[in-house]
Amino acid sequence: MRRPPRVIVAGGGIGGLTAAAELAAHGAEVTLLERGAELGGKLRQVTFAGRPIDVGPTVLTMRWVFEQIFTDLGTRLAEEVRLRQSEILARHAWTDGSRLDLYADLERSTAAIADFAGAREAKAFRAFVAQAAKISAAAERTFILLPSPTLREMGRATGLAGMRDFVALDGLRSMARALSGHFADERLRQLFGRYATYYGSSPYAAPATLNLIAHVELAGVWLVDGGMANLARALARLATARGATLRTGVEVGELIVRGGRVAGVRLADEELDADAVVFNGDVAALGAGALGPAARGSVRPTSVAERSLSALTLATLAPTSGLTLAPHNVFFWRTDYAREFHDIFARGRLPEEPTVYIRAQDRDGKHAGGPERLFLIINAPARGDVAPFGDVEVHACLERAFSLLERCGLRVDRQPEREELTTPNDFARFFPHTGGAIYGRATHSMWAPLQRTGARTRLPGLYLASGSGHPGAGVPMAALGGRQAAAALLTDFGLTGLSAPTGMHGGTSTR
User: Fold this and answer.
1) Please, what is the Cα angle at 455 between 451 and 456, to 5 degrees?
2) Residue 149: pLDDT above 80?
3) Is 395 helix (H, G, I), strand (E, B) or coil?
4) What's residue 47's pLDDT?
5) Are 439 and 280 in contact (CB under 8 A)?
6) In whole angstroms, what is the distance from residue 281 CA to residue 385 CA?
7) What gap in Å lies between CA 411 and CA 397, rounded to an integer?
8) How is residue 144 annotated by DSSP?
């Protein structure tokens, strides 16, 4: 009787946990190794006064991804994680005093935009949303659900119909140019242009394809009871229940390669044999040789110029007054929005006028008053390894950020003893060889997604499950990456494969 493959998953983020759970459920002998003390990767939490604050991804979209994963693992998402849909997608404020809430309900958002910017802009919003839906459906069929991000794979999966999808992707112009064609109001161009940053990119360089994010958000933004880290904990429980072994505090030093393929991993004090390794880390780390010379040539290297955004973040427990926060909030300057991205990508410095995002975790329900859990995110360049930021420039940027909040009507009574600051320097230490880039490569052309590494690498037996690989960044996309890595491995070892994922539009990876 043929023995099941021995698989090591290196990294316990969402992609690694998904791959481990699905591989174990389909008969593989799985050991997951995580160098940190906790599982979850970027889904981290800090605690002040016994109250946990999410300090990683804050938005859960594409719920269908996790519905399918949990169903395939023999359970239901609703039985493992408590989710509530956010009524308000985000509250937006500008320094001129204007404010706009967008809602999960299209009619409410349309009415809000009409009150905010007039009937013409409300009509433009409807047209924009309709186009975003078409882009999203085309992207699922031609890219997101495919195992490999190549033109050949896209053509094989979609055939002649794929040509229509390729046109529908709207990849030949930038997001900013497309938004200028929709909206006359600069504030709306700022608001929707910011969606490029969810993919670590600039709206002035990213293809208009990324406007699909507007449709994804309208399809639902979900709040996770207990914080986003509970999603990782649920996947860890399922992986263990299906037979996977999960070990923390263990770092993989390098791959062992014999006969031109992966044969195991070398740790600090032992070697583990394996028939395959799933790497749940940044592609840039592989290309830089983080797992040894054999892994270095398994993927295309990532240059410093190709890096996505990093971030300056601040978790705090503090009282607020003035503007009433929603669960998700964005604060803008009423000036030249392009300047922020010129500062970051062209000049490599912290922005002079940073946009500020705030996750107000205690606003998921009715806030009882008093200090509340806040997580602030400011976009920053990923230069933490080549030109680390000094304390003076970091704190100057923070002062500008809090000045913006006050000008928008929000006052935060900062409590220094209840703050945790994370800079690109810190992210560079957390994720070596990235400079602090959070999203892998920036998506600054229509071809950039096709340069992401798929589930299979050039080294036989080495698979990739990472938000920096295919299909891309974000919690659901990283989970899809883990799922695709598991499916590729199962196919290569002749095990019963996973069913093809079905997207929110009802499409599948093949036709």
Assistant:
1) 90
2) no
3) helix
4) 95
5) no
6) 17
7) 17
8) I
